[in-house]
Amino acid sequence: MWDSIIDLLGVDSAEILFRITPSDADVGEPGVSGMIYVDNNKPPSILLSDFTEEQSGDIDVYFTVSDLERDTVSLYCEYSPDAGTTWYEATVSGNTDFGEEGYIGHITWNSLVDVPDQYLDRTRFRITPSDNDEGEPGTTNNFIVDNDNPPTVVVMGVSGEQAGDITIPYEISDKEGDPVSLFVEYSVDGGENFYPATITGSLEGITVGSYRGAFTWESERDIKGVDSTQVLVRVTPSDLDAGEPGISPPIWVDNNTPPTISLSDVSGEQYEDVVIDYSIDDMESDLVSLICEFSEDGGLNWKPATVEGFIEEIDSTGYLGSVIWRSDSDLPGTDQMDIRFRITPVDNDTGTPGETENFHLDNNELPSIIVEDITEEQSGNVSVSYKLEDAEYDASMIKVEYSSDGGFTWHPATVATKLEIDPARYAGTVMWTSEADLPAIDSHDVMVRITPFDNDEGFPDETDPFHLDNNQPPVAVVDDILEEVSEDVRISFSLDDNDGDILSIDAEYSTDGGETWNTATITGDTVNLRPPYSGSIIWNSTLDVLGLDSDVPGERQPFREPPPV
Hints:
The protein is mainly β. The chain is built from six helices and 48 strands.
């Protein structure tokens, strides 16, 4: 028995000869066998590294070869898609024939060639080493090969302002036509942050027939109160793998509830700075700005108002406040009853305005007047000159009054002049018919006052006191004395006074035919003479003209006493 393994360890050959040589004292002729196939080769073995992660595309498979004879080794590579039940030759790149220097290394499985567009979750890889003999194969653990092409999605644009439930169209593409699921997110900060969106219905397992579709985003649940033109919707498709997300063009989403405002009514006549109290209401407590307007026709037409106060970006602590309308800047000189004020609140949207009821605004500049003083005695029709001044040049009226007691009391004057004054007649005169108001007066305490009006009573002016003499002087008639008289002489007389005043008389005599007159000494009533004014007095002539013998002409000179006050 030839123990060939000792002599030919590792040999694998079909050309082995065996020779036997006999001998006694001499060496005989040897005998040679025919060709013998001796296989003492120990087949190589191989150990493959396991996979711990999902693989795809070109997959590196690491190995370690063992061979006692350190022969040149060839590798045969296979893969199984079903955990080793069936095997297929693998397309590989790298050195599959090598000597001892290559016993530790790797080859690359070009899996896209063998299993393109597939997702295999029970893949195994096997390598069988061979030198002259086929050795024991090495096999990996089950691992995932993902050569599936992830789906893609295009998110369509949504035009115009949107609110509440928003329908967003999409179109899916997937090379393998796999069922696709969609994950939807939204962003309100230009794409820096995305958050899961609330979607109506299911977006799971969308089949190829429904790759073009739309979903409804319940935006008000996610971004209540937001008003932005830069909202983005991101959709991530997935079959077995997540694909590249699609992002919509910017969408204008307006879920803002516009603010409202209420104004307190303005009571009473107003002028210049008008205080407008307001109360803002906004569900989102946004910053609110105010647009202030006024109307001078009861709300038919509106104009921007000049205001003072904080009207830009008012926070919720200032929702109860007021503005001051500088009405004299917008409506100088006006005096109207149908003025209204309106405020419109604005956050990102224009809210519901509030407005007042009609109120009375009086910015009229009061007219004034200058009345010229009267320096000379007047009677009858008294001409009073004036100059009227009015900033708005309104048509005006004047009121004329008189006083007979130096300005303590005033009474309407009877005038013979038109009292409506247009701007062309701001300087003029008014004619006072004084005899109609103060007949028979003779006073130095008479005054005239004129008050101008447009819509409002202006500033009056009056004359200084002047002399008004409407008195008609009384007349005395002395009865002639036809015979010679002496000593106490009775003088009979009668008086005539149109005004019926209480009269007094002065008695005088003349001894030179009326050239000169002297006070007469008389007995009788000379004061407080009342109608009918007829009477007589006694002239004590002996006291005045003792020893005179002459024709002495005499005349009673009456005078009028002022009536008692």
